[in-house]
């Protein structure tokens, strides 16, 4: 008997879920409301698509085995993505000081434009599996509260009902899953939003001659000053380009969209290094601004009822403030949960499969959600959350850990494991991390960005600001 799976959404989560499903069903149809570009180009269905994205090590590891016959790390690097070591390939000013750079290797992350990443993943899936993509907008789920049996989809040719043995909603932050579930008779879905009012502004520059090896550079926002947060990043991407993304919270921290204001914003950050770098670089694009940045979570795993043969993944399940760079990794981890359950050989119609995947995907969300929300609640004007007594206790420990990590490899490696989603937050409470944190940093604070002599020469050569 032929089996069909339907995936709603052709973004990262949708294509990875489709790849996992392709190994156990006869047909996988991906439904996408956007017209998909034929190459690494921006599309309107990705509101944050023009801004900086980081693919953390945990997410990349989850992707490695999802597409049959394709090593995704090699595939993405061949497409133009860059690999950056958290321990040595990045300089970062945190609220607790500059991170040092270590000779020991740390977790790797990939940097590229979101357009390249989505296209490269989609290309790999469509080339190496029998997955097909159709344009259409899903109007509702079919079936009932006990089991989803397909979708009703609107296309240019009219409405049709598409039956399926398994359905995945990966339609992104605009998902209508709560409405769809209500149509099946499932209500009472718990949702939560925490919105710091973050605004992103991004411009792409040509990488200056001689600066192709300059490290990824971040000046982080400080949520503990009772004033709007401001941050900036220079990130290497494909095509010998720098993506420069600024981010600021409501109430006066929002970055401007004009070139002069954009540069001045970078110079007014706690350290002007981002502005000094781009002052001598050639801009290639206009400045793109977006505001779809809130943390939003649907606690689907807590629903008393859950239909068989239906799973929600990626941004349809949870979205995060993009400043923390974890959304793509969480989407990949969720698809990885689906892949592992399917690899167990129970088949898409097995009782309880959907509930197990939904709970497993929620576990992947927890660490990223805690990390993002525990920071955002401290910014003034944040809507949907405020620091609790527990938040204050956790923040006190976390700030001490980060301060220690500026001069302790042991503390830094624990922090990298969590931010990379290689480990959950419990990694920060292991004896080695706790002892390091209690002892404090063994090295004195770094005075200025930890640049090599050649990197300092690059910075001096680019600087047109006169700021030091």
Low-confidence stretches: none
Going by CATH, the architecture of the domain at 4-83 and 115-193 and 293-365 would be 3-Layer(bba) Sandwich
CATH level-4 homologous superfamily of the domain at 4-83 and 115-193 and 293-365: FAD/NAD(P)-binding domain
Shape: globular
**Termini separation:** 70 Å
Strand content: 15-25%
Supply the helix-strand structural class. Answer: alpha+beta
Helical amount: 25-40%
Highest CATH level, the class of the domain at 4-83 and 115-193 and 293-365: Alpha Beta
What name does the CATH topology of the domain at 4-83 and 115-193 and 293-365 carry? Answer: FAD/NAD(P)-binding domain
Average pLDDT = 94
CA gyration radius, whole angstroms:
22 Å
Q: How many H/I helical runs? A: 13
Quickly list its features.
single chain; 468 residues; alpha+beta; FAD/NAD(P)-binding domain; eight-stranded mixed β-sheet; five-stranded parallel β-sheet; 13 helices; 22 strands; 22% strand
């Amino acid at each position: 008997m032929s089996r069909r799976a339907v995936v709603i959404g052709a973004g990262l989560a949708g294509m990875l879920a489709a790849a996992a499903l392709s190994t156990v069903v006869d047909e996988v149809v991906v439904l996408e409301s956007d017209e998909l570009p034929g190459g690494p180009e921006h599309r309107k269905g990705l509101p944050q698509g023009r801004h900086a994205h980081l693919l953390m090590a945990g997410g990349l590891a989850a992707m490695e085995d999802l597409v049959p016959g394709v090593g995704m790390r090699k595939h993405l690097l061949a497409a133009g993505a860059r690999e950056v070591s958290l321990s040595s390939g990045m300089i970062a000013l945190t609220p607790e000081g500059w991170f040092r750079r270590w000779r020991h290797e740390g977790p790797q992350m990939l940097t590229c434009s979101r357009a390249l990443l989505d296209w490269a993943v989609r290309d790999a899936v469509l080339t190496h599996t029998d997955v097909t993509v159709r344009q259409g907008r899903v109007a509702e789920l079919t079936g009932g509260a006990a089991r989803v049996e397909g979708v009703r989809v609107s296309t240019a040719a009219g409405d049709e009902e598409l039956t399926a043995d398994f359905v995945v909603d990966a339609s992104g932050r605009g998902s209508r899953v709560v409405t769809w579930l209500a149509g099946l008779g499932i209500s009472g879905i718990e949702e939560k939003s925490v919105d710091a009012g973050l605004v992103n502004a991004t411009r792409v520059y040509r990488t200056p001659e001689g600066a192709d090896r300059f490290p990824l550079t971040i000046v982080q926002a400080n949520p503990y000053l009772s004033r709007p947060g401001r941050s900036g990043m220079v990130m290497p991407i494909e095509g010998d380009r720098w993506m420069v993304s600024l981010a600021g919270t409501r109430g006066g921290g929002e970055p401007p969209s004009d070139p002069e204001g954009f540069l001045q914003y970078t110079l007014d950050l706690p350290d002007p290094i981002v502005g000094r770098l781009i002052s001598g670089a050639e801009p290639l694009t206009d400045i793109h601004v977006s505001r779809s940045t809130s943390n939003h979570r649907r606690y689907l795993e807590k629903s008393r009822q859950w239909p068989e043969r239906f799973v929600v993944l990626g941004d349809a399940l949870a979205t995060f403030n993009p400043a923390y760079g974890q959304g793509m990794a969480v989407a990949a981890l969720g698809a990885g949960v689906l892949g592992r359950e399917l690899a167990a050989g129970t088949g898409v119609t097995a009782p309880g499969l959907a509930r197990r995947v939904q709970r497993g995907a929620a576990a992947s969300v927890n660490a990223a959600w805690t990390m993002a929300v525990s920071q955002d609640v401290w910014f003034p004007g944040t809507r949907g959350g405020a620091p609790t007594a527990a938040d204050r206790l956790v923040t006190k420990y976390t700030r001490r850990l980060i301060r220690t990590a500026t001069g302790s490899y042991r503390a830094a490696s624990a922090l990298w494991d969590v931010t990379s989603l290689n480990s959950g937050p419990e990694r920060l409470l292991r004896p080695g991390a706790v002892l390091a944190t209690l002892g404090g940093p063994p090295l004195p604070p770094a005075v200025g960005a930890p640049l090599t002599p050649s990197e300092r020469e690059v910075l001096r050569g680019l600087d047109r600001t006169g700021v030091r």
